[in-house]
Specification:
Elements: H1 5-13, E1 17-19, E2 22-23, E3 37-39, H2 43-55, E4 67-68, E5 73-74
Antiparallel strand pairs: 1-2, 1-3, 3-5, 4-5
Function: One of the primary rRNA binding proteins, it binds directly to 16S rRNA where it nucleates assembly of the body of the 30S subunit. With S5 and S12 plays an important role in translational accuracy.
Organism: Oryza meyeriana var. granulata
Family: Belongs to the universal ribosomal protein uS4 family.
């Protein structure tokens, strides 16, 4: 959902990211297996993530992660 680690940290710090439906604002938050990572349900959050997804290389996504670009959701 972010092209770089600093970009991911900023998305989290600015409260654009939810894990299992709860806002996460700690960049060092550790996800567990089967956690669902989504964006807030507002246009600004979705636009930021959409721009990042469009500019990133899908081949660099780790094999243990899946991403649904239409629903802005990662597993």
């Amino acid at each position: 959902m972010a092209s770089t680690i600093p970009e991911a940290r900023q998305l989290v710090n600015h409260r654009h990211i939810l894990v299992n439906g709860r806002i996460v604002d700690i960049p060092s938050f550790r996800c567990k297996p089967r956690d669902i990572i989504t964006t807030k349900d507002n246009q600004r959050s979705k636009r930021l993530v959409q721009n990042s997804i469009a500019s990133s290389d899908p081949g660099k996504l780790p094999k243990h992660l899946t991403i649904d670009t239409l629903q802005y959701k990662g597993l």
